[in-house]
């Protein structure tokens, strides 16, 4: 059996570029929402003529779509992911554009009949509405409120209620409507994530950096030891994961 030091050192050295979590296979599990986001994206991509994947990460989801539109573009803001997505998507005919998450989308008005985004840092609703063609669709799966907060609060302590309430699907729905879009689907599900060793927790916090923004192994060594002891005693550490699906449509021309 691996020691605490071995598990932490292995996870601290693991590469975290892209949005591929296969390093966690056998070390952590996450329930998937019932709606099947990848399947929904694939269905809509097959019918689209021009599609945009916002904050594509390493391009993994887009690369897995069986049939992409003739014009397929992705944006990404983190340089290591831009390089990774470019290597993955360019051979498939998709263009990757470097654009910071907070920047305006670098495209003209009415450019796409489909815009998708999986787990965006934040949805820029006015920009999404601007680049959607009349009658076009935005489809996104987002991290919901207080997701994996059992892990967050294990390291940071109890969080204020306003922090726990961030990323509300109702807020997203109101923001979409304020941008002039019609919300046609909005669903929230509570799921579970289970970590089977402390290395999985280290890897997760290194990759999903906004959970514990100042995380380093050195700074949180005592809490990591406590996490290791909990997993050794209980067999795993379980957290509640929240996800919501939002689909919004641009109005058609009169």
From TrEMBL:
Gene3D superfamilies tied to this protein: Vaccinia Virus protein VP39 (3.40.50.150)
Record's keyword annotation contains Methyltransferase: yes
Superkingdom to which the source organism belongs: Bacteria
Entry's Gene Ontology molecular function annotations: methyltransferase activity
Matches recorded under Pfam families: Methyltransf_11
SUPFAM superfamilies: S-adenosyl-L-methionine-dependent methyltransferases (SSF53335)
Signal peptide start-end: none
GO terms of biological process kind: methylation
Domain annotation Methyltransferase type: ranges: 52-138
Keywords: Methyltransferase, Transferase
Membrane spanning stretches: none
Coiled coil regions, renumbered to chain: none
CDD domains associated with the record: AdoMet_MTases (cd02440)
Matching PANTHER family: METHYLTRANSFERASE, METHYLTRANSFERASE TYPE 11 DOMAIN-CONTAINING PROTEIN
Name of the protein: Methyltransferase domain-containing protein
């Amino acid at each position: 059996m691996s020691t605490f030091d071995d598990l932490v050192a292995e996870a601290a050295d693991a590469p975290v570029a892209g949005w591929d979590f296969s390093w966690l296979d056998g070390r952590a599990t996450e329930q998937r929402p019932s709606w099947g986001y990848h399947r929904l994206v694939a269905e809509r991509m097959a019918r689209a003529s021009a599609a945009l994947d916002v904050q594509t990460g390493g391009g993994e989801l887009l690369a897995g779509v069986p049939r992409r539109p003739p014009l397929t573009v992705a944006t990404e803001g983190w340089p290591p992911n831009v390089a990774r997505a470019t290597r993955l998507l360019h051979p498939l005919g998709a263009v990757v554009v470097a654009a910071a998450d907070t920047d305006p989308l670098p495209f003209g008005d009415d450019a796409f009949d489909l815009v998708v985004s999986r787990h965006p840092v934040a949805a820029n609703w006015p920009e999404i509405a601007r680049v959607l063609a009349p009658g076009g669709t935005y489809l996104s799966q987002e991290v919901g409120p207080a997701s994996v907060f059992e892990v967050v609060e294990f390291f940071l302590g109890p969080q204020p209620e306003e922090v726990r309430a961030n990323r509300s699907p109702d807020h997203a729905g109101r923001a979409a409507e304020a941008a002039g879009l019609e919300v046609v689907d909005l669903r929230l599900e509570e799921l579970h994530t289970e970590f089977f060793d402390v290395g999985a927790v280290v890897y997760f916090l290194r990759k999903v950096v906004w959970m514990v923004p100042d995380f380093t192994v050195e700074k949180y060594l005592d809490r990591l030891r406590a996490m290791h002891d909990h997993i050794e005693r209980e067999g795993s550490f379980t957290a509640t994961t929240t996800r919501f699906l939002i689909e919004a449509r641009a109005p058609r021309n009169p």
